[in-house]
Amino acid sequence: MNYFFGVTRAPQAILFGEGQRRALGSVVSRIGSRVLICTDQRFSASETMQEIRNDLAAKDLIVRVFDGTQAELPSDGIYGCVTTHRDFAPDVVVGIGGGSCLDMAKLVALLLSHAGSLDCYYGELKVPGPTLPVIAMPTTSGTGSEVTPVAVLADSSRDLKVGISSPYLIPHTAICDPELTLTCPPSLTAVSGADALTHAIEAFTAVRNEPNVDLGQNRVFVGKNLLSDQHALAAIRAIFRYLPRAVENGEDREARSMMMFASLAAGLAFGSAGTAAAHAIQYPVGAITHTAHGLGVATLLPYVMRFNAEVCEADFVEIARAIDVPVDNSAHATHLVIRRTQELLANIGIPRTLATLGVPADRLDWIVEQSMLVARLINNSPRRLTLADIRSLVEAAYSGRDTFTFE
Ligand SMILES: NC(=O)c1ccc[n+]([C@@H]2O[C@H](COP(=O)([O-])OP(=O)(O)OC[C@H]3O[C@@H](n4cnc5c(N)ncnc54)[C@H](O)[C@@H]3O)[C@@H](O)[C@H]2O)c1
Q: How far apart are alpha carbons 351 and 80 in whole angstroms?
């Protein structure tokens, strides 16, 4: 296996730091003149939004605001935005908010650029060409959507979360201003931070594929690689150190900045390496429980880590070194890393089981079947996942049964 292979996919520019939101007007005016802003009612009513509007108006930009984005992004709302604003003919779409608003901007840009409905693009590499440019400005530190080739929506007709993955969905510019996260309450900080941790760990432990010229061209998610590893480890290191601080004290500016850095880095990591079982299983779990994406993936994460432990010891040793866990032997370090992950998640209030998350016992079979259908994520698992494996993983996560044994 050749380990010296890497892929990074990223926006043309990433502006990071407190106050960088004030660059939005300059960034937009270089690429267009008619701006559609996709956000939600919370942000649209804020003083910051008024400042942004003033800035854009001062640059003679023509602005429309859609502020009807709903959390977890039901598809009806996306079509509603497109129908209302198609006549406006924007040449730039700006997403401001959590992952739902950023994904809204990506999908609105897609539907304004290409014919067909959203289901034409479900899965990987179905988007036929470039979309309107998107500028993404996150207000949570979690999804990394500001840099990823992914948008996730809730298909209202099937009651299922689905993903669209294509390099054409990567925003043109990401503006990451940690001050925008100062208003996140502790529960949102926890859930979005846990989402970023799951991205980073699933990317760092993704399957490693034998590199060839086609790998980076024919797939969005190429598996673990040299470049994604750097971003994933940086994210993991920062999250273990700063997530508890950001949850504990939302005004801790250092923690807010480092969590926004971590979610950005985790987005860069999984934008090429991909995610795996925790994300595949969350899709049906989210559909049944209507719980936040981050809550579901983080509940599943320790069980998935345990399942992967026997093939990922070398990765867990690297994580151990990054988070200052002693490494005397690799099996013990693996055990400690999983335990530290469980403790971190428990301390910030992530449920320990799918039962606590609200999954009814009689829906486990359906969750197993539906998870298996998310082939691009199942195939990205470092340990091959059979139907029986997913069943035992889901059952363990439902009951909280600790299947990892260490002597
Ligand atoms: N595209 C990707 O790469 C990607 C990756 C992971 C998750 N996702 C998707 O992102 C969505 C989740 O995004 P999210 O976790 O950022 O939450 P969100 O966008 O769904 O927002 C959740 C709630 O938090 C509020 N909120 C957002 N920012 C706030 C702030 N600064 N202060 C106070 N409240 C704030 C929102 O108004 C909303 O009510 C899901 O649909 C998920 O599937 C996308």
A: 34
pTM: 0.98
Angle between helices 253-273 and 186-204 (to 10 degrees): 40
Show Cβ contacts of residue 286 under 8 Å, excluding neighbours closer than 6 positions.
Answer: 72, 154, 161, 292, 293, 296
Q: Is the dihedral of CA 161, 167, 171, 174 positive or negative?
A: positive
What is the Cα–Cα distance from 303 to 337, expressed in whole angstroms?
13
Going by pLDDT thresholds of 50, 70 and 90, the confidence category of residue 403 is low
Q: Which of 38, 42, 124, 192 to mutate to test the pocket of ligand 1 (most atoms within 8 A of CB)?
A: 42
What digits encode the pLDDT tens for the residues 252-279? 999 999 999 999 999 999 999 999 999 9
Give me the helices (H) in 309-347, please. 313-322, 330-347
> Do the Cβ atoms of 171 and 11 come closer than 8 Å?
yes
The per-residue pLDDT for range 374-387, each reduced to its tens digit, is 988 999 999 999 99
- Give me ligand 1 centre to Cα 382, in Å: 28
Residue 75: both structure tokens together: 């598809």
Q: In the numeric block, which tokens belong to residue 298?
A: 């983080």
DSSP string, 204-256: HTSPBPPP-TTHHHH-S--BS-HHHHHHHHHHHHHHHHHHHHHHH-TT-HHHH
Q: Supply the DSSP string of 248-279, one letter for each residue.
A: H-TT-HHHHHHHHHHHHHHHHHHHHH---HHH
Distance (Å) of CA 177 to CA 172, 205, 260, 368? 16, 29, 8, 39
Q: In terms of DSSP bridges, do strands 34-38 and 92-97 run parallel, antiparallel, or are they unpaired?
A: parallel
Strand ordering across the sheet containing 62-66: 13-16, 173-176, 134-138, 92-97, 34-38, 62-66
Nearest to 275 by CA among 311, 318, 308: 308
CA–centroid distance, residue 5 to ligand 1 (Å): 32
Residue-level pLDDT at 161: 87
SS3 129: coil
- pLDDT at residue 158 in the model: 84
Position 406 confidence tier, pLDDT thresholds 50, 70, 90:
very low
